[in-house]
Model the fold of this input.
Amino acid sequence: MTQRAMIIDDSRAMRSILRRIITGLDFETAEAGHGQEALDLMEAGFAPDLCLIDWNMPVMDGYTFITEVRKRPEWRNVTLMMVTTESEQGQIVKALAAGAHEYVIKPFTPDAIVEKLELLGLSGKGIPA
Amino acid sequence: MTIAPEMTDVHAIVEQVWSSFLGDEEPLLPAYDADGPFGADDAWSSAVSIHGGWTGTVTIELSKNLAFSLTRLMMAMDESEALDDAEVADAVGELVNMVGGNIKSLMPGPSALTLPVVAAGRAAHSSDLREVSRFDARWAGEPVRVSVHSPS
Done:
């Protein structure tokens, strides 16, 4: 079964870059410009296996999105990966403590994203990487 | 004494951002230009501010041609597709977000990064800021300047 990924970033250019990487791994994708839009899509029925999440966004930032997702038992299996320029140690620890599984610092290479997904056992076709 | 990022660090960060998202085929070449390479009507600029353990503003100014070229590359659009200003602002804003975020990580923290501000034209700065670091370069023959300003 094809896995689903939600790309959450206020930059359309960054969403485009991540979409090309993720669809290359055969994920189905949806996109949101901020955390609240992503929550709305999930409430409406889009069930992601993976969320790629920027930190600094208008309306709802990535950290708040993670805390909101982790409040909901039905979303406990969603893998959350921060993809952000925020690289202070304190913020990385804060995101991981809130429930993020992985943390990628921009700029990144496509290989870096793929390697992280492999570590998480995710591939777009639902077969462990 | 003002704490400022080293020019070599700014250079390294900009090069890493450029090669990650715009490819290695076309090198980013340092190109000192004391007068500033941009006419006011032929440039785009973007800025993010850092507040906290260190305070400053990181600005990218680049020619209109370069702004359009990198937008097409980041969005995987070909020359035949029309670009609007919002798309260019988005791409140029994301570049300064990445450069600014990485400069923030070099400076005393903790601190917060603002969302990018983008404009068609030269960057404007608050009068209490002075330039503490600058990197001038050319990419595909087009000029780009990254500068860091901090309160004097």
User: Anything to note?
Assistant: Chain A touches chain B through 23 residues (CB under 8 Å). The helical segments of chain A are 12-24, 35-43, 62-70, 89-98, 110-119.
